[in-house]
């Protein structure tokens, strides 16, 4: 049966009708058995389409591709250390999680199961890039230590309420860091978790810097 | 020309200013309250106690108002300032609440223990406190509001908005942002404003809920990430896939704007405009530590 | 408090979480690292090949797949990372696949005119296993209707986008989709 109702069942299913049309169709389907059945059938078909699984081809196609792109099918040489000069914007554009610390040092966050020859990234400025494992980097830890020392030595110059607030918030961030690290350890390829960890580390450094600035302003 | 006023009684001075000059006010404790008029002059009214002085200084580019502590302990000076609306403001203090009304130029405010409340601002607006809430209304341009231990809010403003705090919520209401970044560590994020085509909206918190208001005709590519939080929508959204670690994307309309919603362990919620406030009040009954 | 129900949102089929490491590999491959590109190839082969198989014929799928990856290698420099690599690759694959279709220039019945059109299109017989039935049924659709169905229901594109890709009116895309679904339903429910 082909009529104004059944012809538009797919649009109804996909939500492509206007509000008024949608309501009218809803009312019609409730009263029309044939349309209701057709609708159910359409829904089943769509669900099956959505749950189709992808299958690779029967034979591997890489050698043909390798030949066409001008590369031998297997690169026999041992993995070399390669120097890759990406600018920070290029890396960011490639969606690689970067944590840019105040002070200009930049980290490259990589999911740890990857076994790429460790790249060194040159960035403008004097700060080298350090590869980050799961949130433990020499550069970051050293920066945190320095700033925490400044705060410890200078806290006498700040009033107790400010010190309390700073310490309370550093504790909040530390708690978040611990949770984030734990999550990354369990799912190290997860880009969200990695970038969330980097962001939380940045928050800590930012707050420590802010505290250090307050200490020096109070001196 | 250099004016030094070290009176023990109330100060009430007005100095003429020229277009292009900016105003810098720096104090230690006490309030800075700025309102505006359309005279090309700056008026300073203050009531310092015996341990403070107020200096007003003028150069070709800047008018400075500074309170100095005499040795011997803290002092409180409340400064009431009236300045031309066009004047750029740079206000800083330590134990200082700052309020500004009616400004129409760039504004920078920095305090440690004090609340910041600004109405107005055009161009670069940057407000910062450590232990105090920060609220901005009716501003346009490149807007930044930061706190550490309290809430920040932006209302009825437009432009590029960055709102950040550690232990507090971020509330952006009737904000027309072309680019919006809202982050907290321990706090909720609320956005109630249009989602503009081509805009970028990033909301990220660790321990807090995100409530995003989405008008019916919005065009956005939305990506949702959470570690062990939830996602809810009060209008129809088809989610046929979620991935472990709870991350997924979907598209509204043409998908023009980029919307990123990330909460490590909170609820990410989409609502229709106007519903944001009631959704938040209904849902939120937890106490943050 | 709130519930979700099917409604007016199109979900683009997203890739698995491995797409996270794709970003790193894409950057490396763009600078000439063939190892990295091979990793990308292995990660996305099934998806690209399945798309090629469903949009074209079985015999063309292998060659089309190779074309896709060769083009991807050539165009890596233009991948700006604004979307996931898989999304970019997928879009490129569709362009390559549709380009092949045009070049072949064989006049075939492209669209569904009325009822029962599937009987006139030769197909293969298969085991009555659910997914194979679906893939076989899709293969039996005339090319134009099949591509619309695959792009909309399998791949998640919207009618406006499909119309753009195939050079049709949006209305044609909608009506062909509906007919394709009805035809498939008929075949599958037999």
What does this structure look like?
The complex is a heterotrimer of chains A (219), B (289) and C (190). In chain A, the strands form 2 sheets. A 3-stranded mixed β-sheet of chain A has the order 2-3-5. Chain A is 56% helix and 7% strand. With 219 residues, chain A is mainly alpha-helical. Chain A contains 8 helices and 5 strands; from the N terminus they run ααααβαββββααα. In chain A, α2 (19-31) crosses α3 (33-50), α6 packs parallel to α8 (191-218) and α7 runs antiparallel to α8 (191-218). Chain B is mostly beta strands and 289 residues long. Chain B has one helix at 276-283, and strands at residues 2-5, 11-16, 22-26, 32-37, 41-46, 52-58, 62-69, 79-84, 88-92, 98-103, 107-110, 116-120, 122-128, 134-137, 140-146, 152-164, 170-183, 189-192, 200-205, 210-213, 220-226, 230-233, 247-252, 257-263, 267-271. In chain B, β6 and β7 form a beta hairpin. Chain B is elongated and about 70 Å long. Mean pLDDT of chain B is 87; it is low at 282-289. Chain C has 190 residues and is an all-alpha fold. Chain C has 2 domains: 19-104, Rna Polymerase Sigma Factor, Chain: A; 120-188, Orthogonal Bundle (Arc Repressor Mutant, subunit A), CATH 1.10.10.10. In chain C, α7 (159-166) crosses α8. Mean pLDDT of chain C is 76; it is low at 1-17 and 115-129. Chains in contact: A-B, A-C, B-C. At the A-C interface, α1, α3, α4 and α5 of A face α1, α2, α3, α5 and α6 of C.
* Total number of beta strands of chain B: 25
One letter per element, helices H and strands E, the order of chain B comes to EEEEEEEEEEEEEEEEEEEEEEEEEH
Secondary-structure element series of chain A:
HHHHEHEEEEHHH
Oligomer: heterotrimer
Query: Mean pLDDT score of chain A, rounded?
Result: 71
Total helical segments of chain A: 8
What share of the residues of chain B does DSSP label as strand, in percent? over 45%
């Amino acid at each position: 049966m082909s009529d104004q109702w059944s012809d538009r069942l797919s649009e109804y299913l996909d939500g492509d009708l206007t509000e008024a049309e949608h309501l009218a169709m809803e009312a019609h389907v409730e009263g029309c058995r044939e349309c209701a059945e057709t609708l159910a059938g359409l829904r089943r078909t769509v669900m099956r389409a959505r749950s189709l699984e992808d299958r690779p081809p029967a034979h591997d196609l890489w050698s043909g591709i390798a030949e066409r792109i001008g590369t031998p099918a297997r690169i026999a040489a041992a993995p070399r250390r390669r120097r890759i000069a990406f600018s920070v914007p290029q890396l960011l554009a490639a969606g690689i999680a970067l944590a840019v610390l105040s002070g200009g040092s930049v980290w490259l966050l990589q999911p740890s199961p990857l076994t790429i020859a460790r790249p060194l990234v040159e960035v403008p400025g004097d700060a080298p890039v350090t590869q980050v494992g799961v949130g433990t980097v020499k550069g970051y830890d050293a920066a945190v230590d320095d700033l925490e020392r400044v705060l410890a030595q200078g806290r006498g110059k700040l009033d107790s309420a400010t010190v309390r607030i700073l310490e309370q918030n550093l504790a909040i961030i530390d708690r978040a860091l611990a949770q984030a690290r734990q999550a990354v350890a369990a799912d190290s390829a997860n880009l969200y978790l990695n970038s969330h960890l980097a962001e939380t580390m940045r928050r800590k450094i930012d707050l420590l810097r802010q505290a250090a600035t307050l200490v020096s302003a109070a001196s | 020309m250099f004016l030094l006023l070290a009176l023990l009684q109330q100060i009430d001075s007005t100095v003429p200013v020229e277009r292009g000059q900016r105003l810098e006010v720096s104090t230690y404790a006490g309030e800075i309250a700025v309102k505006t008029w359309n005279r090309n002059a700056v008026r300073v009214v203050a009531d310092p106690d015996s341990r403070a002085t107020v200096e007003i200084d003028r150069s070709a580019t800047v008018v400075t108002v500074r309170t100095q502590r005499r040795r011997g302990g803290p002092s409180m000076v409340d400064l009431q300032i009236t300045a031309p609306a066009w004047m750029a403001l740079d206000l800083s203090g330590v134990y200082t609440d700052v309020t500004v009304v009616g400004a129409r130029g760039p504004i920078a405010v920095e305090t440690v223990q004090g609340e910041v409340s600004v109405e107005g601002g055009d161009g670069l607006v940057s407000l910062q406190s450590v232990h105090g809430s920060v609220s901005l209304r009716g501003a346009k341009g490149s807007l930044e509001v930061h706190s550490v231990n309290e809430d920040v809010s932006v209302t009825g403003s437009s432009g590029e908005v960055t709102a950040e705090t550690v232990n507090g919520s971020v509330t952006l209401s009737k904000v027309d942002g072309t680019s919006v970044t809202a982050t907290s560590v321990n706090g909720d994020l609320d956005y109630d404003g249009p989602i503009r085509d081509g805009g970028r909206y990033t909301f990220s918190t660790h321990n807090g809920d995100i409530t995003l208001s989405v008008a019916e005709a919005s065009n956005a590519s939305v990506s949702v990430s959470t570690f062990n939080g939830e996602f809810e929508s009060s209008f129809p959204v088809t989610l046929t896939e979620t991935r472990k670690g709870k991350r997924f994307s979907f598209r509204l309309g043409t998908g023009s704007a980029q919307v990123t919603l990330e909460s490590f362990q909170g609820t990410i919620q989409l609502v229709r405009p106007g519903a944001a406030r009631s959704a938040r009040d209904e849902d939120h009954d937890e106490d943050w530590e | 408090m709130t519930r979700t129900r099917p409604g007016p949102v199109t979900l683009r089929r997203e890739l698995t979480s491995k797409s996270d490491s794709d970003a790193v590999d894409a950057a490396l491959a763009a600078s000439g690292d063939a190892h990295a590109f091979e990793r990308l190839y292995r990660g996305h082969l099934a998806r690209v090949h399945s798309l090629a198989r469903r949009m074209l014929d079985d015999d063309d799928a292998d060659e089309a797949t190779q074309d896709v990856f060769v083009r991807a290698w050539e165009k890596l420099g233009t991948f700006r990372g604004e979307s996931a690599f898989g999304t970019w690759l997928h879009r490129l694959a569709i362009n390559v696949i549709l380009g092949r279709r045009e070049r072949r220039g064989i006049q075939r019945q492209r669209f569904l005119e009325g009822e029962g059109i599937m009987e006139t299109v030769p197909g293969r017989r298969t085991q009555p296993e659910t997914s194979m039935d679906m893939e076989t049924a899709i293969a039996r659709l005339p090319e134009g209707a099949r591509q619309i169905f695959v792009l909309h229901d399998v791949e998640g594109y919207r009618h406006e986008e499909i119309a753009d890709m195939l050079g049709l009116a949006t209305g044609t895309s909608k009506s062909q989709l509906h007919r394709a679904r009805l035809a498939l339903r008929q075949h599958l429910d037999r």
